[in-house]
Design brief:
It is a single chain. The chain is mainly beta. It folds into two domains: about 140 residues, Diaminopimelate Epimerase, Chain A, domain 1; about 130 residues, Roll (Diaminopimelate Epimerase, Chain A, domain 1), CATH 3.10.310. It is built from four helices and 17 strands. The strands form two sheets. Strands 5, 6, 7, 8, 9, 10, 11, 12, 13, 14, 15 and 16 form a twelve-stranded mixed β-sheet that branches. Strands 4-3-2-1-17 form a five-stranded mixed β-sheet, with helices on both faces. Strand 6 and strand 7 form a beta hairpin. The longest helix has 14 residues. InterPro entries: DAP_epimerase_AS, DAP_epimerase_DapF. Keywords: Amino-acid biosynthesis, Cytoplasm, Isomerase, Lysine biosynthesis. Belongs to the diaminopimelate epimerase family. One of its GO terms (biological process) is lysine biosynthetic process via diaminopimelate.
């Protein structure tokens, strides 16, 4: 294993990542190393790790090499692997563009993920990503202590459970220091749980939702892009709309979810690179 590794730190609405530039897949990236890098007291600190690797050089990305040169190898903070990360793919795209590793063409910048190829379009400070169409597929429940909330299961390439709060329960008062309960029969691989309340109308949108999220493998985060996509899909469905725009406000900022008239789903928000450095891998062990 390399003794010292270069890294970049970035975030999308407060959902932060350690980015590792490993074009040819030479780094021995292990669950323990990922967890150590993401440790906020003994490592760099992050909600996850994004490894920048050529699709052809990674077994999970090789099948997409003809469509996308770069594969987003995403790991949760606890060292588990995730299929997709909506904030992560925007930060990943920002990294590729900033470091001249790719150019954003008319059709957008293709990025391979474990749930398929997505495309990023740059609009000033915002990045819009053409995401996989969310699949709303089952009713379920989420529990916090003695409270049970009805929810809806949504597949965004990774699993989500969107639960609206009720009976005057305040979003800022729910305790997400521990993982919410869920039905493992519905979510055998675990699930990201989003809790929501409706917001006041926002100009230029069809719905406005406030959201907090507990991410599998990372605990509560300031933002979750694929979670916002799931929440947007549920909000439009409950409104009886097949297209429209939803403003999703999270503790880390606002994301916009759009279902356009061509049946495509977009996730838009900022992505910022804030620091670069070198980490002593041996010191993390």
């Amino acid at each position: 294993m390399m003794d010292r590794v270069l890294f970049t730190k970035g975030h999308g609405t407060g959902n932060d990542f350690v980015i590792l530039d490993d074009h040819d897949g030479a780094l021995d990236l292990t669950p323990s190393l990922v967890a150590a890098l993401c440790d906020r007291h003994r490592g760099i600190g992050a909600d996850g790790v994004l490894r920048v690797v050529r699709s052809a050089k990674h077994p999970d990305g090789a099948g997409y090499a003809a469509e996308a040169e770069w594969f987003m190898d995403y790991w949760n903070a606890d060292g588990t692997i995730a299929e997709m990360c909506g904030n992560g793919v925007r930060v990943f795209s920002r990294y590729l563009l900033t470091h001249d590793l790719a150019a954003a063409g008319p059709a957008g910048l293709p990025v391979a993920t474990r749930s398929g190829v997505v495309r990023a379009v740059f609009e000033g400070d915002l990045i819009s990503v053409h995401m996989r169409t969310p699949e709303v597929y089952a009713a379920s429940t989420a529990t916090i202590g003695p409270l049970t909330f009805p929810g809806i299961a949504v597949n965004c390439g990774n699993p989500h459970l969107v639960a609206g709060l009720h009976d005057g329960v305040r979003l800022d008062r729910i305790d997400l220091h521990v993982a919410p309960g869920y039905d493992p029969g519905v979510f055998p691989e675990g699930v990201n749980v989003e809790f929501t309340t409706p917001g006041e109308p926002v100009e230029g949108t069809d719905r406005h939702v406030h959201m907090r999220v507990y991410e599998r493998g990372s605990a509560e985060t300031l933002s979750c892009g694929s979670g916002a996509l799931a929440v947007g899909a549920v909000a439009l469905r409950e409104a009886g709309l097949t297209e429209g725009r939803v403003a999703v406000d999270l503790p880390g900022g606002r994301l916009l979810v759009t279902a356009d008239g061509d049946g495509r789903w977009w996730l838009a928000g900022p992505a910022v690179l804030v620091a670069t450095g070198e980490v002593d891998v041996a010191a993390l062990s």
